[in-house]
Specification:
Order of helices and strands: HHHHHHH
Structural class: mainly alpha
Strand content: under 5%
Helix content: over 70%
Distance between the termini: 18 Å
Shape: globular
């Protein structure tokens, strides 16, 4: 990967972090927000299926967002790095991914990451309320964002 693409990815990640942190109130529905950084990281992992690079990209993006938000430090970096690594590894092993496989992969990753993230950060809520009112709607909203992106800018 050349230096131009590293700089471009870094700039895009920082821009998405700013949008996710500062402008999320504009696109939230009933205080449910999609994780657009996770969408970007998964799409990058599918485009460039290098597990080590995806792991590092996810860890650094997660650490930056954790330091900015100041919530549970390391939760986002753990989730993003595992998601990026898993998607890259799966893509590398499978090779070609059809549209249904991509959507299934996105669904699994979003559901897993939402459950883990909200269970870590909202542990004072009852478990079922946390899962059904926050984690799953957030995963579904993120999948809607993926679906719209797939229509306008499909992954190959």
């Amino acid at each position: 990967m050349e230096i131009k693409s590293y700089i471009q990815n870094t700039f895009l990640i920082l821009l998405i972090i700013v949008i996710q942190v500062k402008l999320s109130h504009l696109y939230s529905i009933f205080s449910i927000k999609p994780d657009i950084l996770l969408v970007f990281l998964i799409r990058q992992s599918i485009k460039d299926p290098n597990p080590t690079r995806s792991l590092i990209r996810g860890f650094l993006a997660g650490m930056i967002i954790d330091l900015i938000i100041g919530d549970v430090i390391g939760a986002s970096s753990l989730i993003y790095s595992v998601a990026g690594f898993g998607v890259s590894y799966y893509k590398r092993k499978k090779g070609y991914l059809g549209l249904s496989n991509k959507f299934t992969l996105f669904s699994l990753v979003f559901t897993f990451s939402s459950l883990i993230f909200y269970l870590l950060t909202l542990s004072n809520l009852p478990l079922l309320k946390n899962i059904f009112l926050i984690a799953l709607p957030s995963a579904i909203y993120g999948l809607c964002v993926v679906w719209v992106l797939q229509i306008f800018k499909p992954l190959k």
